[in-house]
Amino acid sequence: MSFILEVKNISKEFPGVKALDNINLRIKQNEVHAIVGENGAGKSTFIKILCGVYPFGTYNGEIYLEGEKKKFFSPKDAEEEGISVVHQELSLFEEMTVSENIFIDFNLVNKAFINWDFLNKQALKWLKTVGLEHINPTTKVKDLGVGEKQLLEIAKALIQNPKILILDEPTSSLSVKETEVLFNIIKELKNKGLTFIYISHKLEEVFKLADTISVFRDGHLIETNNKEAYERKKVINLMVGREISQMYPKRLVKPKDNVVFEAKNFNVYNKFGRKVVDNVSINLRENEILGLFGLIGAGRSELVNSIYGSYKGKYVGEVYFKGEKIKINSPIDCIKHGIALLTEERKLYGTIPTMSVKDNISLLYLNQRKNKFFVDKYEELKEVSKLVEQLKIKTSNLEESITTLSGGNQQKVLLARNIMVLPEIIIIDEPTRGIDVGAKAEIYSLMNKLTQEGISFIMVSSELPEIIGISDRILVMHEGKITAEFDNINKNISQEEIMHYATGGN
Q1: Which of 153, 156, 194, 188 is nearest to 171 (CA)?
Q2: Which pLDDT tens digit goes with each residue over 461-477?
Q3: What is the pTM of this model?
C-alpha cells in the first residue's frame, strides 16, 4: 500500500498546554482522509505543522512526503513540495479583484508587466472549476457572498497543482448547491490522483466523502480506520470520550402566548440595489426559540441584521417591542431596548482578537455602565467571573487572549457578552457554525436554560437537524420571502418537508 504522507512522533507544546502528543499517522495516496475531533482536540495545530505555519524546530517529530523526510520552515516551503491548505478562516484581500486574489502568489504574474486580459481569462477557467463561472474576474472580493469566497479560496489553492490538498471546514459557509459542487470537485480531483485531508465537524459529510477517518481527542490520535468500520455514534463517542445521549435537550419551558417582539413589512436591498428581503413580517413569543431556516441567498442574515440596525445596505420596516413601536437606527438602539445579536461571522464582527477573554465579555456592559470618571473593575470582574462559571467557558485565565480559546468557547464568550447586558431577546445567527458536537450540545443546553430565565431567541441556522431539534417554531425563507411556517413543539417535522419550501416548493 502506497502512503503519500507519514508523520512520526509529532508533538507540539504551547505554554502550559500540550496541543499534540506523539502523533503517528499515515495518509494513503489518492484518498480522502478525514480528521475529526472536538475543538481543542489538536486538528488545527496538526495541519498547521503539515503546511509550515508552525515551522520545523517549533515541534518534535518527523514528516515524510512520498518517503522523503521534509522540513518546512514556511507555508511556501510546504506549497513547493505539494501541500496546500484552505483554512476555515478566509485569507482573501477584500479590496482586490477575484483575479488578483487567485494569482497573487503565482508564477503567471510577471514582475515587470501584468497581462490582465490573460490573467482574467485564466481566472475564468479556475472559477468554472469550482462552480463560480457566473463571477466576473474583475469583481472585488468584498462584493462576493461568504460561500463564494470559500469556493474562491479553493480555486486559489488548486492553481498550485498540489499533491495533497487540506480542506479545513470547507462547507461551513456553503449552500446545499455549493456543497454539492465542492463534493463533485473533490471526487473528480481524487480520480485524477489528488489526495485530500478533510477536516469537518459535519459527520454526514465525512461519511459521504471519506475513505479513512482519524479521530483526535485532547491532542492524541485516538483511532484511525476505514470509514466502513464506523458509524456516527461510535465516532462521536471517540471524539468526546463520553456519550452524548441527548444532543437536543428537552425544552424546559413552553413558549407563552404573548408576543414580545415583531418586525413588520421589512424590505431590504443590498449595496447593488437588489431586493434581498421582500415584505417580510415575523413575531416572537415570550420564552420561545424561533428558528429561521433557508439556503444561502434566502435573505435570513440580511433580515436579522436589518432588524438589529447593522445591515450595510438599505432597508425599511417597523419594529415593535412588547407592543410598542420602537425606532432602531443602530445596534446601540437595540441593546438599549434589551435586544442582542450574536453575529454569523464570529471572527470578523464578533470577537476582538487583541483583547482578553474578560474584556471581550464586558465590552457591551461597560458601554452601558461606565461614567465619565471611572469603571468599577471589581464589579466588572465579578460579573464576568459569574458568567464564565455559568456558561462553563474553558479558559485558564480571564486575562488571556480570546484567540487561545476553541471555537465553541469563543461562541460562549459572545453569548456571555450579550447576557451581561440583561437582554430579553437574543438574535443568534448560525449559533454552532464551525464548532464540534460536544460544544454544540452545550450551546443548545444554554439556550434552553436561558429561555427558562425569560429570554426569547430568534435563531438563524443552515443546519436542518439543529433547526428541528431546538426550535419551538420554524419559519422557512426562499428568495427573500417567508414560504412556510411550522409549529415544532412536538418535533415531528421532516427535513424533507422543510427543504421542499426552502427550495421554492409550493
Answers
A1: 153
A2: 887 888 988 999 999 99
A3: 0.61
